[in-house]
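Example S7 (structure tokens).
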């Protein structure tokens, strides 16, 4: 029996453990879907001359229409799924995000919220509730969600929990085509975007690809054919300053996240994009000691490092290089308005005040509930839980004001 875990904390890394061999799905429908996806990937590998980049494999494993982890029917979030996220741990998280939205909405006036990758829809409900109480509802709360089944789950939860506010919520199939005013939210979105995985040897730079051996997927290395990836890999080598041992240095480059930021930069007329995810500024990301990268898989609340197993049934993620996001924002005229840890952000947005209010509002205010809330706060803020590894980055356009969430600590200079 395993406690539900948040995605990045890796309480039980089992990559070199025989238990990995037992990590199987016993669900016949899920297995058939996975086999279908594996056949599709095999066909693409053969059509591509025997190998595809890991980034392409990850793209298909997570997003192949109807079969990928996010585009198919896997249960994903929550206790019956594979991992829990901050909004699932405690409503206090969403209350704090709402407080930050409130500050921006009050300055802009008529404005919207766009949440990209809304998971179960819990955060949308809590944010709308909090903003309603504060008298600052956005005109529209847009949700852009790639997963059809999560979209249905979001629609159900919004109908159940905030029926009187559901007319504010609209689901989009792609980013809006009109310039956007308001707040764009992305919690644990960018870590699920496909990454290029590279190997830096003493004298070589190569990209990890996937090929077939005896009908199974297998890693292989090949020359890097993308100029951008080649340049990034050389930059990483320089950053490592020659500290590369005989096994080489393995890491990831997330071009998809950068291009997502650029699309948002082109969209944002006036407002802020708030990105919450696990990761580091660049020097810490590409640290000589992080020599096996940050690639991680999540299946039924267990974490391991083998993305070639359970294709389409498990989540695959990597940590975020926040410096790369800030640079991508800068390319499209976004300003870096704040960068801090999740713990500092939540405390600055009034986490403890919200906790007190919630406690006093609960009918019984029982010691058990107080204890549970204390656990939630610890999980969200303590450095060895989500408090430090998770960061918050704000990029803005058309507004110039210090944001509440960064008032306790702002690490922009480290990016
Ligand atoms: C790890 S979950 C996080 C969910 C939610 N934000 C939370 O914190 O609970 C990632 C979410 O992003 C969605 N997603 C992944 N890639 C996406 C994309 N390119 N556009 C929109 N949604 C995406 C997934 O379907 C899922 O809802």
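Recovered sequence:
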């Amino acid at each position: 029996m395993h406690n539900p875990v948040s995605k990045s904390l890796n309480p039980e890394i089992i990559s070199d453990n025989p238990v990995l061999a037992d990590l199987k799905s016993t669900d016949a429908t899920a297995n058939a879907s996975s086999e279908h996806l594996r056949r599709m990937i095999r066909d693409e590998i053969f059509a591509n001359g025997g190998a595809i980049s890991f980034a392409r494999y990850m793209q298909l494993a997570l997003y192949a229409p109807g079969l990928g982890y996010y585009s198919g029917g896997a249960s994903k979030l929550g206790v019956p799924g594979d991992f829990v996220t901050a909004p699932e741990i405690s409503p206090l998280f969403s209350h704090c995000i709402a407080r930050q939205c409130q500050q921006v909405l009050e300055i802009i006036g008529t404005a919207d919220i766009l949440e990209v990758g809304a998971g179960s829809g819990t955060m949308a409900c809590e944010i709308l509730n909090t903003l309603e109480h504060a008298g600052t509802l956005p005109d529209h709360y847009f949700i852009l969600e790639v997963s059809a089944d999560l979209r249905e789950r979001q629609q159900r939860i919004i109908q159940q929990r905030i029926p009187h506010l559901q007319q504010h919520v609209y689901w989009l199939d792609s980013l809006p085509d009109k310039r956007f005013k308001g707040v764009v939210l992305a919690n644990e979105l960018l870590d699920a975007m496909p990454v290029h995985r590279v190997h830096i040897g003493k004298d070589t730079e190569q990209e990890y690809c996937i090929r077939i051996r005896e009908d199974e997927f297998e890693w292989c290395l090949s020359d890097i054919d993308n100029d951008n990836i080649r340049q990034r890999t050389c930059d990483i080598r320089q950053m490592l300053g020659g500290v590369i041992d005989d096994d080489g240095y393995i890491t990831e480059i997330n071009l998809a996240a950068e291009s997502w930021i650029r699309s948002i930069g082109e969209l944002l007329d006036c407002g802020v994009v708030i990105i919450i995810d696990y990761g580091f500024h660049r020097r810490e990301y590409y640290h000589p000691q992080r020599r096996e990268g940050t690639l991680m898989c999540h299946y039924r609340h267990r974490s391991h490092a083998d993305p070639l197993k359970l294709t389409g049934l498990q989540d695959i993620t990597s940590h975020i290089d926040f410096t790369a996001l800030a640079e991508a924002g800068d390319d499209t005229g976004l300003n870096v308005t704040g960068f801090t840890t999740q713990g500092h952000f939540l405390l600055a947005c009034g986490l403890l005040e919200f906790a007190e209010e919630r406690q006093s509002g609960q009918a019984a205010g029982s010691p058990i509930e107080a204890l549970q809330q204390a656990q939630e706060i610890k999980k969200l803020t303590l450095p060895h839980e989500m408090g430090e590894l998770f960061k918050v980055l704000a990029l803005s356009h058309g507004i110039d004001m210090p944001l509440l969430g960064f008032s306790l600590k702002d690490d922009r200079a480290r990016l």
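Notes on this example. Residues 149 and 204 are 43 Å apart (CA to CA).
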